[in-house]
């Protein structure tokens, strides 16, 4: 065929390698949007910041519409497209763009989102041509409450369909975030416009790679934009085996995976400031020694891996490991079907996968569709055994549940959740509620109050009105980190900003709802009076013995033992025991022990005394004599009655404590 | 839409946080298994799963054998002892008749379970008659009281360790509900009194005695005859206790498993129901993945653990760095520094409380709203009186109205939205299946959820769907492949079982590990049943048609799309120009292949091969 040269295209093509995205933000800055533009700025800024960190080669353009002025190529070349301003042409993300988006102009005109869409589309096509299919993206943020202009010819529907088809051809994806707070009323005319706009946006969805998300609060606005672009990666491609004669071709992806903070590198400031070539890197060295005192370091071949088995550590050579380990074959095998009610929701063990039929295998799509639909109809689920890759040393048993698509153009698929093995369950028996004494159970009146409360505090009065959807709820910690990062990039000693106001919505009950239902709230408080147990003395003991930091809840340990990230350096009111333990367990400096003790002294004397007794026993048991010595050195004793009225330790007993430790130290 | 052909197979399954799930060694437990070895334990039998008759003695020892294996895996710090009573031989420190403490070399009588103990105890039934022997230790006209002696020996064994930091327990296995029934009345009273006193002494020392009674086929074990006093049941508890009297081996194993796992408080949680009403809850980690223990490095010549020292070294100067060390994030051409304190401050956004936000219908909780194992919540009145009442009221309302609660939990990193699902108690013959309480499900944030479905949709083109007939065939197939009595976590983890079998074999110098049964494999026999085969065949036929084979079925769409993509892309480059200027290498492999495909040339080989093939074709 004919071979033509398009230098501009080619150079663009080459500069923008695979997996890079070209994005145009279309931001409605009209007067109706002013109240939430701060949050739009925040949302976009987060998106750009993450691109600067994770997708540095992505290219971004910014278009504002509803502006007083007009500045775009289409307006210049062919006219029309007024009040649409290109704030930035499509370019690689840089420090400027992150700044730009934080200072959006406040527009004066009701913007036409269709005009803006066409301007954005034109920019993408001019920049990339037909290339970069699926990597060209338009993101529209608007309240879609302003009228769109009539086209020169045909209807709006026809116009939108034409644009949508063109977008699909060009491989441009479109994402619309529509802000709809309940407050915005405005009469019939307004409603009609909104209805028409929603209809138009819906036309995009059915004709192009487009989706529309409706958000009702700044919080869900922040959550609505996928700010971190992760290249989709299959974790498995292969057969879902019904039996050896029937296999479906499927691909498996992560449906849910936790987004974490970026991995921060360690930084060394040891190099002299004059050293221009200093890398400031920190390397971690591991020395393997026979004993702590010995200076002799064991070479890799002089050591062997061992696993604990009862009281012994069993050495295993790599060869033994290789020959003896559990061996598997890659694949997904169906074990059978069972009633959905057999699988209680809390047995799901991990983040979730999605099992999609291979897009090139039409028959597999049909088979998956048949099974998924049949599951949904009959309330059944499938139990499967999976080995995701060759050489994997374990198997996973999980449950497939149907994901029957609501969209005509999307194939049916399954969700996959990991189920526990027999070894994973710790069945503790708990008393039946029915066995509790009457005073522990609600009476009829109290039950009625609780019923009303549960009905009233409704977060999903209708499917459309559901709030706090996980799909639209941003992670407050990540938000805060990136906000702080931005501040620090401008001034190294910037102070940490407080948690953003919008997150109140996930940290507190909806004030409006509770205020409007004050009588129910009062009834709840009135009917369920609680009080501190006056006999708390005993329970302190339990509290100390079952201190959370040595319990088996992992979350807790994350807080107290994750030495790198969560250093506790003071004993707080809320979890004094935990904090104390965390401080003591810090190995970075022995000063922490002194500090921990002085902190605890400020706490309640009763608790302190219980605690000291307990610590004393603990130290004895674990031979922590160096720690006990601190007691003597610092003259730490039980707090006697004479010092604190709360204490129930007699003065002579307090002294005894110090005495009784002495001989133990000798032994 | 197009899928990225460069997507490489990458495994994300290995959780970098897996240490995060590991159970911290909690408080230690000392356990003595007391097994009645009287002749009656051997002569009485129960039907087993496969309808064979198994002796009560067999039931008891198999339960314990299984329990030992669980101990060494999950709770290897616990110390255990095994003690038979009503034996012919005696072996105990007190030199009491009729009591035999079973042990293996290089192990104290009460000690952590070892590989050898497990191995030899597995074979106990073969050697029992010869080495230990069964003999009734309580006989008329003698003052011998083997039960009394057994309690004494067990109590002496449990003298080890402080009761402050350890739980101490005896598990008593017997099928004799009236041990002194054959005695003269005066002797009986006397023996009953002394035995009960002995049990009480033990309990006063903080030792709990738990009974695992085995019923006769024709007569249920009557706890009220004697044992209710020994284990200290009051009349209320008695009725609760009765249904749990085991009859089958499986029930018994289940019973023991539940009781061996002492209830531990995972975490105390303050649940803020609304302003002015906060109650106390305890959180329990009832489900956590069990994983092989961590690696300990050993000196390969002595097999002794080595000491690992970690040091942070500045690469510029070689200086050793003291923790805490600053962190950096490269951002816009500079390195932004964070102190560890700043990083922890960022994460500290709320109190550790659990705050109720509201309620939603259960249908709002989707199958993909999950991140990690749930936490079980149960109320406590220990510190805040009234907690249980408020909790039960909410629990009932939620169950009745079919709603779950949405709450914010500040104690995880990062803090999360959680769903609280009320769980009604479920009981079966074997006891409690699900405890009453709420399960806390950790919800993902928006950026944790990925829009995978979108990737696979093709706008404007209907995705292939099953027809009514195909749907019917699928339903029929599902009926045939119904798993009977399926319950979650019925499978042992084959990799973990294999791991421990391997450790045991190496520990005992055995050459043969034997096969670890993999219970997770499909039931081959069942799958071969003609009705099943027929149902699968029919479903297959309805989807694939008469003769087609799913392997070769490549959808027509892909082919045409490929062709289309090929021509259009090929047209947009001037390959000759690129070849001349040496710029072919700037194209991707896929783009190079597009040209080759268009010219009907082979597309195999590495990038350089592809380039040289194009160059050859063009004639440069």
Automatic annotation (TrEMBL), chain B:
Single GO molecular function: double-stranded DNA binding
PROSITE patterns found in the cross-reference section: SAP (PS50800)
SUPFAM superfamilies per record: SAP domain, SPOC domain-like, vWA-like
Domain of life of the native organism: Eukaryota
SMART domains cross-referenced by the UniProt entry: Ku78 (SM00559), SAP (SM00513)
Active site, renumbered: 24
Pfam families given in the database record: Ku (PF02735), Ku_C (PF03730), Ku_N (PF03731), SAP (PF02037)
UniProt domain SAP: residue ranges: 584-618
GO biological process: DNA recombination; double-strand break repair via nonhomologous end joining; telomere maintenance
Keywords of this entry: ATP-binding, DNA damage, DNA recombination, DNA repair, DNA-binding, Helicase, Hydrolase, Nucleotide-binding, Nucleus
Chemical reaction(s) catalysed: ATP + H2O = ADP + phosphate + H(+)
Name of the featured protein: ATP-dependent DNA helicase 2 subunit KU70
Native source species: Microthlaspi erraticum
